Amino acid sequence: MRFLKKGEKKKSEPPSSPTAKEHPELKVISGSQIPGRQGQQPNPQQQQPNPQQQPQQQNITLPNIKHKIAVASGKGGVGKSTVATNMAISLANAGAKVGLMDADAYGPSIPTMMGIQERPRTSPERKLVPLVRHNIKLMSIGFMVPEEQAMIWRGPMLHSAIRQFLSDVEWGELDYLIIDLPPGTGDVALSLTQAIPLTGAVIVTTPQDVALADVRRGVAMFERLGVPILGIIENMSYFLCPHCNEKTEIFSADGGRNTSERFGVAFLGQIPLDAEVCTAGDIGVPIVAGNPESPQSEAFGAAAQELVAVLEESGDEDELTIL
Ligand SMILES: Nc1ncnc2c1ncn2[C@@H]1O[C@H](COP(=O)(O)OP(=O)(O)OP(=O)(O)O)[C@@H](O)[C@H]1O
Ligand SMILES: [Mg+2]
After folding, report:
1. Would the pTM of this model clear 0.70, i.e. be above it?
2. In Å, what is the CA distance from 148 to each residue of 24, 72, 142?
3. What is the whole-number distance in angstroms between the Cα of residue 225 and the centre of ligand 2?
4. Which of 74, 165, 209, 280 has the fewest CB atoms within 10 Å of its CB?
């Protein structure tokens, strides 16, 4: 379901898409072709997602992927992609089979963060073959569409692309598929939860109050969609002096921990605000890959370990030790 944004006019059919023409491997279908959507009009009374609708639409099962985990936030720029990337590498370093799907069609970051300029190839079975970096299988809309084109994607095309990234990509057998979401509570999160049963969502926040208000919205959205919250990660929690290792709490302390307690969800850990974390992302070698012994990498590893512990507690997760 895509709702028109305030002030946006409804058009009968999306304009012919340069994306579809240039990239036949990324089949784009119009909204009317999405099952169960023919002739549907936006209904203001359905502005909120209805959890009862979700199970009927989750027809992609991906049985070879054990855990499908969305990394989300209510607010932009809090470090979702940084956390998703470094946690994925921590899990892979511990021996897990990991995939990372960049579902941020509006501003895909994974190609830059992983230093990738090539395109995935298409297999003889017409499936997209993920690119591999640091032992992680990767797929991003940014591999195929220049960023400025991604910005103009309309809801039904986005919905279709998300589904194809799940079902038409050769993910193979994975322990974890980490899915990096765009900020907020919009179309992509809804499409994703409609497409597959997620194991759960990890919410990334910064410690300030304003960011935490957005966390509450993010948590509320996943709860409405029936997706378990696996935990909250507080990013940019403190500044770690590179000379004396002294911690300085720049923003109010422990906001993420307090919020997780309030919601009764796990607190997965704190990641320091650190220039190396930022530059590592910019140069395409995430810090956990480039400087795995650093305290910053240890913080990502500890958060990944906590996530595994939450999954173990909740069910059948095999033991995985992150060193
Ligand atoms: N712990 C950190 N220390 C220093 N810089 C960080 C840290 N985490 C993220 N950054 C930097 O902050 C910026 C935003 O991070 P990132 O792109 O991961 O956020 P995001 O939540 O995915 O953003 P968006 O909402 O746009 O998808 C990037 O330049 C990144 O390198
Ligand atoms: Mg991002």
Report:
1. yes
2. 19, 22, 10
3. 21
4. 209
Secondary structure class of 187 (helix, strand, coil): helix
What's the domain range around 309? 23-29+57-313
Burial 138-147 (b: 16+ CB within 10 A, else e): bbbbbbbbee
54 three-state secondary structure: helix
Kindly give the distance from the C-alpha atom of residue 79 to the centroid of ligand 2, in angstroms, as a whole number: 7
**Which ligand 1 atom is nearest residue 181's CA?**
27
Residue to probe by mutation, ligand 1, list 238, 274, 278, most atoms within 8 Å of CB: 278
Tell me, what CATH number does 211's domain have? Answer: 3.40.50.300
Q: Determine whether the shortest distance from the Cβ of 214 to ligand 1 is under 6 A.
A: no
Query: Could you tell me if residue 322 is inside a domain?
Result: no
Tell me: the pLDDT tens digits for 114-134? Answer: 999 899 999 999 999 999 999
